[in-house]
Batch of 4 targets.
Target 1
Amino acid sequence: MRRLVVAAIVATGLVLPATSASAQPDCVWRQAELPIPPDHQNPLVKGIGGDYTVASASYQGHKILRWYRGQVAVVGTPSAEGFHSPVDVSSNGTVLATRDGRGYVTSLDGMHKFLPDPQPDVSATPVAINGRGDVAGYATVNGDAKLVLWSAPGYDEARIVGNGMPAGIDDTGVIVTKNAARYLSPGFAWPLPKPAGATSVFVSSYENGVAVGSARVDDRDRAVLWGANGTIRYVMPSGIGYSGSSQGTVFGLTGVNLPTIWRAGEQVPLPNPWPMYHAGFVTERDTLVGSYLDQGMWDPRVAEWSCG
């Protein structure tokens, strides 16, 4: 029977999670606090890249915090005016952010560059940055979402390179969209494969060659992790995946907004406290980074969890 199941998996591309209780050892979570500057409140993690983490915070206005290997820095903004919000951070420390909705990047040396719009009457929204500093976003043109690419280091031009909204961009320049199109180069895309029986798929995030999202199968959402070259690695019994690593760890939701972690396709216990689902990420170190609230806390903290 198991051989027949394996044969069906190979034929369809569907990878089922292990069913044995001993297939995936329980996690013993170790929590390391990430420091927060004095008087800064409500830190919410927005993105990760390599050894960097970026978060929004409140202190005499809106601030941007960046951590590197446990050390925190307050990232300067182009001006004191306006609403500044981080979007993502690259593995070289460049922060992607917006001021009143307009995108800009801040490099490690503190230099800021605003991202131009693709057309005079069309604004664009940045979504993700890769290790080279290239930025992927989208713009609405004649009612349709279009992929926009700003190339580092100059960011001189906003090029429309495809259709849809990006879930992320990897260091080779591959962009995966929310509707599961994998753009290998401008204007050239392949769809990510659907699990067997899926009527639709949705990609939440794409980084380091790993796409994470969900598929609709039998009127039920099932978290999915796509690996290198867009192949399906794991389809979970339920849930929606939000962030994942090439090691096969996925962070997402099941039930009614219940944060959930899967490793090698199998659900494992959460750390306690656990990261908020909208402010938690899986790193390529196979750790969790995010903001969390513990009992009696009203202001979030930030931590990194590793699983032994």
Target 2
Amino acid sequence: MTAAADPLRALRDLLAAEPGVWLLGTRAADGMRTRPVRVFADEGDADLVVLTGARSRKAAELELWPEFTLAGPVAGGWLAAEGSARVVRDAAPVAAWVARHAPGVHAGEVCALVLAPARARRWSVSSGSPFDNTVATLLP
């Protein structure tokens, strides 16, 4: 199946490639939090990975409320994806992700946020007018 025929893979490839840094929204006890993150995707894996400090607030928030939003610019518009997340603290998979995506970082101080997009939309912006855009659903 090609990436064009598999919307989840096409979305994963887009999120991992452009721009590579996205805004991650998570739920917190006092409301929502948003921060920039670098998103990685491995060939053959439908999930996305964010490496973060093992004691980060985003990891703690996703352990309590395992829902996320990723948003950012793409060519000609904007993309937003939502879904479920899990925090991986097991040494072997974290060390493998660190070796591939962040060589030189001490894996013992890192955990992985594994993001599984379930919904995604892309807004194509044609001009500065608030009503001059189109919305495409990439994942239902």
Target 3
Amino acid sequence: MLKAWLQNPNLSEMFVEEKYHSWVSSLHTDRHVTVTLFQLEKMYGTTKEAQAFIAELCRGQSGTPHPQAPQVAKARMFKVLKEVVDETSKGESSSSGVSISGRVSESKAKELLKKQLGGLGDGIGNFLDMKTGAIKSKKPKKEKTAEEEAIAEVKKLEKKCKALSNDLDKVIEELVTHKVRNCSELVSCLEKHVPVVASELTRVSTMAAVAISEVDVQKTVSFVTEHKETLKPIDIDVRDGKRRVTSAKGPKRKKVAEIEEVSDLED
């Protein structure tokens, strides 16, 4: 089949690509966890030394109210280091692809060629247009390098920061506008999150603008992991705020709908 292809002047373009990759990666990851004071005391104890250590872990953090028990002081949640992981991995991989193009004029040749092309790969025979005789296959997608993958994750994080910033402003406004009960502490907490998210967005956007040639994969992956952990408790508070707003709006909307329904019946 390949020999016939090469000898046919109408089928002059065929590209076969082989790629081989060998890689070694070293990854240093700081993993954090968000826990309550109750959990910290269970983990480290209640001795003077333990209390001093817990106080040092929580220093500089205001803590996030627990979504289900916002009024309980010891249920406030703090971000602490859980573990430090060092990972080294290496391996090899290979890939291949075929790209073809050309045009067949005779109808019998079209039928025969379509049948033969089916043996080159899954579904490749479908690339022969029986009306025009045109043959065109899609080129295999270019594989992303480790650097490109790392920057793609940073850009996803940047998008998340922007969405979180918008949600924060909206949720705070709605909580205040609808005078949602028992949410003053949550509003205060959300307001403290605003400058934190703004700072995170600045740092993430700066990282996202780094040229591919200057990307340090290990540092970038650690950067993304760290900042995801920073945003996690903020995201929890925003979701809690949205839930409360929805709960406050729900009965009102239902009541309005019932009034409109009664009005329609009276008309």
Target 4
Amino acid sequence: MKKATEDAKIVGKIYPSKVVAKATVVSASPVTSTVITTVPIPKPISKGVVIGKQTGGSSSEKVDLSKIRDKGKEILIEKSKEEKKAEVAAEVEKMRHVQSIMRQRALEGSNFDKGDPLKVYNYETIESRVMFDHMYSSEKIPKKSYVVTNTDFSQLDFPINEMMFFMPQFKAESKIMETEEGKKMKIRFHAVLAKAQEEVWFLEKIRKVISFKRDVIFEGKIENVKYIVARASGKIQEFTVTNFPLMNTYDLINVALMLKDKSFSFLKDIEPDVFSLGCKHIKIYMENYFECLAQTDVELEIVKGIDIIAPMAPTKKQYELNKYEDGEVCLKPLGIVFAGKDKAGRAKRFLFQTCEVERYSNSQYTNLIGRMNHYKKNSEGDKKEIKKVISWYTEIRRVMMYAVQALTT
């Protein structure tokens, strides 16, 4: 309990609860990952990753949980009017950006190849989504699955981070990429050369790296690499650096660990400079992905050695939260209300929102789940939904910590 209290720097000091020790289980499902082991404290990622070398606002109305039928299935939570209105406003703003950008592009002429305009992630769409957002803007949700058993055909589903479209792919080119034109070139790199997401995103694990080779040098600046891999079913697949932001990041972690393993003799036929280039691309991508996660993750920020400055999402007002008991589930937005103290030592109610799951430490998860289990009026369905999110993100965090540790030694 002491550890949980010390960690509560974001949400305030947590009151001791009457929770018994049994109520500290985060996930009911055993983790059977073939990659994950007990993770020691990783080295700061700023030291570099070595892969291998050859030689918001909500409705104030309280939901009556007793009227919800719980059949053990996932519950579809209806969004409040305020949340729906905010989403519509955000979409309208994005469309304005797209229309503005497309008008600019019409005046620019055709000096640059910007790819197929019919792609889902075409040049204008990518630019409108990432050029006006922050590194921490991506949602911390899986693309398809919250499952954490991590088997050959149901691997861990990492969040897709669209901000990776313009993160620099090589440290040596960081000065170029920091310029406006450098960022646009990086977006063109993906818009022109990337495959559609459905061709490169999988829950099926990669089991073997067959080979990789040089591909085109885009606009004379970014060297692309084509990777050839075999998945658990035996299916052979090709992807390039341009596809990284649209892939399941667990695929890239798997490939990185395979390239680090010097026992893969079949890779010895690859020329040393090509091997180094292929490793370097994945290394830099993983560093950038980790850095983006650390912008809002209270445990990864310590590894990265940064301070979180990103604002938290709007929450319910204090008079609304006072209607809830300590540990009671809130459905709009989905989360857990808990009693605590603010920085001035005043007793208050706080709301853990699943949409900001990364803002809490593992020890705080344990404390919050204990409180939720202790409040007897919470339905099993509601508790299952919250535990599912926490369990999933705990595993995402653990895999990232493991990857950093493995790739920096």
